[in-house]
Design goal:
The protein is mainly α and 297 residues long. The chain is built from 14 helices and no strands. It is globular.
Length: 297
């Protein structure tokens, strides 16, 4: 898509970048201190720290680490995966290219009104109406393939957590065949849950897919962030974790209602859960193996 747009632009790339700059689309850093503003430098620095820590402990990451043969292989795989974040630059570049393309080839008023309801449809619209037939078919097929593989991984992760971390706590000593049957059944149940969630959150499609991608995980990334701290210091039992999780979700809803940017939800709700579980558990922090620095004489 990028190469096709670059080849069809009537002006030069320099002219395209000049126009994008005049529209404020090339602004790299926003230093605003307003907590309601999204995508500021502070959201990137502060928000990304908590999100990165929480994402490193998600079930998806844990499954990939467990699939490695050794600790060293797991470290290499985890570090190597960071290189693929460069692909996000191509996604951003595609958005800039679309803006430049439709500046030279304006859409009709009817199409603009339709796309304004669901802005994320602009790229599929471009694929269907502008790309050659063969290429557009491959693009649509790749989008469906990526979506299916992503959902497949999510369902497998949900089934794994359901069976190994919940079901086996109450049903112990059953056969592997029984647990396999429960895992398959849980995939069906989680598929229904995902479908209901997709239908519900489709009403927020006007916000854009990118905002939803960052917003929704923050309801659980806070508790995950807190769980890492609690596990490190040896605090908490299952009932206190459940209580802390519920309070953390309520705190996230309250922060969301105050229009604070979703990049900050993880830290606030995570710390609330940490102190709630700590208060209920009332055990001293386990400080062994923590590196301390001693002053030189």
């Amino acid at each position: 898509a990028l190469f096709y747009i670059a080849g069809t632009l009537q002006g030069s790339l320099a002219d395209a970048f000049q126009w994008l700059g005049s529209q404020g689309k090339l602004v790299l850093f926003d230093f605003s201190l307003d907590p309601e503003r999204r995508y500021t430098i502070w959201a990137g620095v502060i928000g990304s720290i908590g999100l990165s820590i929480a994402m490193g402990a998600t079930q998806g990451t844990w499954q990939r680490v467990r699939a490695c043969r050794s600790v060293e292989d797991a470290k290499k795989a985890y570090n190597f995966s960071a290189l693929f974040y460069v692909l996000h630059l191509f996604i951003l570049g595609t958005g800039l290219a679309l803006a430049a393309f439709y500046h030279e080839h304006p859409l009709s008023a009817d199409v603009i009104a339709e796309l304004a309801k669901e802005p994320d449809r602009i790229f599929p619209h471009f694929i269907v109406t502008e790309l050659p037939t063969g290429i557009s078919g491959l693009m649509i097929a790749s989008i469906f393939a990526a979506a299916i593989s992503t959902q497949n991984s999510a369902l497998a992760e949900a089934a794994d957590v359901t069976v190994h971390h919940l079901y086996e706590r109450f049903v112990k000593g059953a056969s592997e065949t029984h647990y396999l049957w429960v895992a398959r059944l849980s995939i069906v149940v989680w598929s229904i849950v995902f479908l209901i969630a997709a239908v519900y959150f489709s009403r927020f499609s006007a916000e854009g897919l990118l905002d939803l991608t960052f917003r929704l995980p923050n309801y659980v990334y806070g508790p995950i962030f807190a769980t890492i701290l609690l596990a490190r210091y040896g605090i908490g039992r299952f009932p206190s974790f459940v209580t802390g999780f519920v309070v953390s979700c309520l705190a996230t809803a309250a922060i969301s209602a105050s229009n604070v940017s979703f990049f900050y939800w993880c830290h606030g709700s995570g710390l609330i859960m940490f102190f709630i579980v700590w208060a209920l558990d009332r055990r001293p922090l386990e400080r062994s193996d923590i590196v301390t620095l001693q002053a030189r004489p």
